[in-house]
Amino acid sequence: MIILVVNAGSSSLKYQLLNMDDESMIAKGNCDRIGIGGHISHKTADGRKFEADCEFPTHTEAFEKLVEVLTTGDASVIKSMNEIDAVGHRIVQGAEVFSKTVLVTDEVIDKIDELRELAPVHNHAHALALRACKNVLPANVPQAVVFDTAFHQTMPPKAYMFGLPYEDYEQYHVRKYGFHGTSHRFVSAALAKAMNRPLEELKIVSCHLGNGSSITAVENGKSVDTTMGFTPLDGVLMGTRCGAVDPSAITFVMEKHGFTPSEMSEYMNKKSGFLGVSGVSSDNRDVNDAAVAGNKRAQLAATMLTYQIKKYIGGFAAAMNGLDAVLFTGGIGENSWEVRGGACKDMDFLGIKIDDELNRKTRGTLTKLSLPDSKVEVWVVPTNEELLIARDTLALINQNK
Ligand code: AMP
User: Fold this and answer.
1) Fewer CB atoms < 10 Å away: N or C end of the chain?
2) Active-site hit among 148, 225, 234, 324
3) Residue 121 pLDDT more than 80?
4) Residue 227 — pLDDT band, cuts 50, 70, 90?
5) What phi and psi values does residue 278 have, to the nearest 5 degrees?
6) Which residue lies with its CA nearest to atom 17 of ligand 1?
7) Predicted local confidence at residue 119, as pLDDT
8) Which residues contact 43 (CB under 8 A, 6 or more apart)?
9) 3-state DSSP: the chain helix, strand, coil percent, rounded to 5?
């Protein structure tokens, strides 16, 4: 069973081809600069590579190119798209409409497109890619859509409501949705397996820390609260996103700078976070290097992040009335011993004690970091959103056979 996983952004289309017989990656790549030129980079599991500048006026041309690269030339891996059994798409915003993975129909694509108001950068791009995929693929190839928000649809109203007039929730659907759900679902299940405990009995704080970061309270396998909100801007400090800020500071800054709403959005999404605070970079490695070299603002950005992570771990432990495990994933969570170490420092009152030596050595591998006498287990769990999308797609197809 071969499944193609597609992750479309506004100007990019990432893909991965998986053999679900052994869950191995066959090939992966990225079409980017859609609408402003075009470029494809592609590599196969056996090390063949293809790279080229292209003309991608829309997602359709990008999809046609990825079909060409997968099926022809030196880095091809299949003879025709007929060998693909199904396609799974990552969709950022499913709002309250989609609480699980569904098969793609014209109505589903239209609904995803209609939700674009809630995810302006992503949902329209997803709809374009879904339509492009439908046009290019043989008609009998089933497609599924897996939503970033779906995992968080189990949050209770006390967690997802904002203290704004209720009418705006009813009329405009203003509430916390949460994101990275595919990752939180994948890693919390992988953690339960590693701990050899049923997921349905565990209280987990899942820290997905990357360029975008979110932390989720997973109780008995369900998301009960999470840090990202109406959009992926809320929560902890991120690469270029500000995370949680007093809303009055936002209106104050808007007035001072004379910003329009979209200019303010750009300021909060692209110019803040690590980049805005440190003035050095949005990248954790650069900020960390600058901090070690003595840059005070970089030191501040680094400690702000670890402090905020600690607060959410403590807050979510209180929300769940207990904590069995904390897990770290994402580019930072899997690789940065500094961030993990900072977040777990002085947390012994909560039952968190990690092996500092092991923490320093651990990069990108499933590892238990906590000491034997730590009440709470602490783990690094590598995420694999593509694999979860492919698994979901496969399960749905089998269900509908
Ligand atoms: P992601 O968005 O999940 O790809 O994560 C990107 C973030 O991970 C960037 O801030 C990187 O600096 C950080 N990152 C990746 N590799 C490392 C590493 N070896 N050490 C520290 N941070 C890393």
Assistant:
1) C
2) 148
3) no
4) very high
5) -80, -30
6) 335
7) 84
8) 27, 28, 29, 49, 50, 75
9) 45, 20, 35
Provide the pLDDT confidence category of residue 188 given band limits of 50, 70 and 90. very high
Which atom of ligand 1 lies closest to the CA of 209? 3
Ramachandran angles phi, psi of 384, nearest 5°: -155, 80
Q: Which residue shows structure tokens 């402003």?
A: 36
- Is a pLDDT exceeding 90 seen at residue 245? yes
Q: What is the DSSP letter of 221?
A: T
Which helix (H) or strand (E) covers residue 328, if one does?
strand 325-329
| CATH code at 2-147 | 3.30.420.40
Give 231 Cα–ligand 1 centroid separation in angstroms.
22
CA distance 277 to 266: 15
Tell me the CA distances in angstroms from 144 to 6, 81, 89, 133, 252, one per residue in order. 10, 17, 6, 12, 43
Closest CA to 40 of 23, 25, 28: 28
Residue-wise pLDDT for 351-397, tens only, equals 999 999 999 999 999 999 999 999 999 999 999 999 999 999 999 99
pLDDT in tens, 297-354: 999 999 999 999 999 999 999 999 999 999 999 999 999 999 999 999 999 999 999 9
Query: What's the one-letter identity of residue 150?
Result: A
Give CATH 3.30.420.40 domain extents, the chain. Answer: 2-147, 196-385
* CATH among 3.40.50.300, 3.10.180.10, 3.30.420.40, 3.40.50.720 for 196-385: 3.30.420.40
Q: For 29, which DSSP code?
A: E
Instruction: Give the mean pLDDT of 123-148.
Output: 91
Which helix (H) or strand (E) is 53 found in, with range?
A: strand 49-53
Residues 6+ apart with CB under 8 A from 221: 188, 189, 192, 199, 200, 202
Q: Which ligand 1 atom is nearest residue 287's CA?
A: 12
pTM: 0.95
Task: Give the tokens for residue 357.
Answer: 């030596």
Mean pLDDT of 49-78: 95
Pocket lined around ligand 1, Cβ cut-off 6 Å = 210-211, 239, 283-285, 330-332, 335-336
Name all contacts of 366-374 with Cβ < 8 Å and 24+ positions apart: 366/190, 366/194, 368/194, 369/340, 369/344
**Residue 340 in tokens:** 């993990």
Going by alpha carbons, the residue nearest to atom 15 of ligand 1 is: 331
